[in-house]
Design a protein that fits this description.
Number of helices: 7
CATH architecture of one domain: 2-Layer Sandwich
Order of helices and strands: EEEHEHHEEEEHEEEEHEHH
Length: about 270
């Protein structure tokens, strides 16, 4: 990306601490330093080598907890500049805390009720001890399955050689693009309402999509609408509003993750 500066870059305080601020012809943006960007890529490469080719908890090699904690801390720091990576840090959190009691079958924390004797009660009404702090934490932890997909997603998002600019204030703040999309049955369609007119596309799903769920078709239609609009230059410097009637597609987008591989890949693509 070409950076046409109107002032020298500076390290910014507040929510973008550790970032570099840029003022360009399109607005004010922030980006990571090249040193931090490269370090994040090195962390992901090393972690992927440590995980190996396995994808199941039983076969995976153990990870040094303190090292993984340090790497997670750095990635959390980086997500202050690039919030899009936030959902893909969940595998780090689950792996580091999987040893703690009160976890469900997917290793997510359960709601617990404490008593005065240092025990906690889970949803099955079983009383389990809970030690405060990390005194009983193991030196090594077993990677959980989500960590593999999260590392793969992060490697895609951090693929550019140069840290990308993320705009926090556009000079063209009055441009709003409204989009309407639907993909039900055998057909699909989407409309982008812009200041210079209405842009639309519609069609029929091919035979390769007949067995796909309606959730996948809805989100796929949304991704296609935004990709086509971007290719036509309709979204340059614009704030985008997309409207649809599929709750699952909306939840997947805001969560940034899904247990369905097809929906997960669409979210990453988006």
């Amino acid at each position: 990306m070409r950076r046409e500066k109107t002032q020298s870059p500076s390290k910014t305080p507040g929510p973008w601490a550790g970032s570099v601020a840029w003022s360009t012809i399109n607005g004010v943006s922030v980006c990571s330093t090249r040193k931090k960007w490269d370090r994040a890529k090195i962390i992901l490469t090393e972690l992927r080598l440590m995980l190996g080719p396995h994808s199941s908890q039983e076969e995976a090699a153990e990870l040094h907890r303190k090292t993984l904690e340090s790497w997670r801390g750095f990635m959390v720091h980086l997500q202050r500049t690039y919030p899009a990576i936030t959902p893909y840090l969940k595998g780090f959190h689950l792996t580091l805390d999987a040893w703690r009691p009160g976890r469900d079958q997917d290793l997510w924390k359960q709601r617990l009720t404490a008593n005065t004797e240092g025990y906690w009660c889970d949803q099955e009404m079983d009383w389990i001890p809970w030690e405060k702090g990390d005194a009983s934490a193991p030196d090594y932890v077993q990677p959980v399955p989500p960590l593999y997909s999260d590392v793969a997603a992060l490697k895609v998002l951090l693929m550019p050689n140069e840290p990308p600019l993320r705009y926090i204030h556009h000079h063209r703040i009055c441009t709003i693009v409204y989009g309407f999309g639907d993909a039900s049955g055998t057909g699909f369609g989407h409309t982008i309402v812009q200041v210079n007119g209405v842009h639309y596309s519609y069609g029929l799903w091919g035979s390769d999509r007949q067995d796909d769920s309606s959730n996948y078709k809805e989100l796929s239609n949304l991704v296609t609408a935004l990709e086509e609009s971007h290719a036509k230059g309709l979204l340059e410097g614009a704030e985008v509003y997309i409207f649809m009637d599929n709750l699952m597609a909306e939840l997947v987008f805001y969560k940034g993750n899904s247990s369905c591989p097809k929906l997960f890949n669409l979210t990453l693509q988006l």
